[in-house]
Amino acid sequence: IKILLSTCSIQLQDKLSEKDKELKTIKLDLELQERATEAKIAEKIAALVEEVYSAQRERDEAVMARLRLANEERDEAFQRVQRLEESLKELENINPEENDMTLQELLNRINNADTGTDILKNGAIILNRIHRTKECKKKIIAEEMNAVIEQRDAALSQCKRLEQELHHLKEQNQTSANNTRHLTAENNQERALKVNL
């Protein structure tokens, strides 16, 4: 009986030693799996952070491009205004006294004219001068209107671009938020699986 008990005890000790080794192996495997899971999570988080930084760089570049474009549009508008001012100065530089005198001389010629042909000739010169003045004013008004319309169109175009970019940024932010939630959910599931094991 003692021999039988001793043999059983040795067998049990061997089995216990085997089970202990198996338990240590399982613990080591679990620890390795946990470290691998943590490495995967860290890798995913690093990729997400890089994606966020990349999106931020793209947004910064887009903002700088918009600023450059706005500066160019401002410079073009400024140049148009300068051209209009120069046109106005040219008109202002015409000596009104000289024009009045010439006009007065033409009126005197009409008054002193002996024939209908002289009256018609001087009248045509006066009408021509009036017509040229009107045309010059029309040209200035048309240039001013074109400048205003161009500025309005540029502003509308810029508003559309900004609306599209805002929509794009909202979509990017939503995607980033979804990715973060997805990673967090995966992380929680993996931890829950580890705890259950």
From TrEMBL:
Keyword Acetylation attached: no
Highest taxon above the source species: Eukaryota
Start-end of Polar residues biased regions: 172-187
Keyword Coiled coil found: yes
Region (Disordered): 169-197
Keywords for the protein's UniProt record, in alphabetical order: Coiled coil
InterPro entries: MIPOL1
Residue runs in coiled coils: 16-101
Basic and acidic residues: compositionally biased ranges: 188-197
PANTHER family assigned to the protein according to its UniProt record, in alphabetical order: MIRROR-IMAGE POLYDACTYLY GENE 1 PROTEIN (PTHR22089:SF2)
Protein name according to UniProt: MIPO1 protein
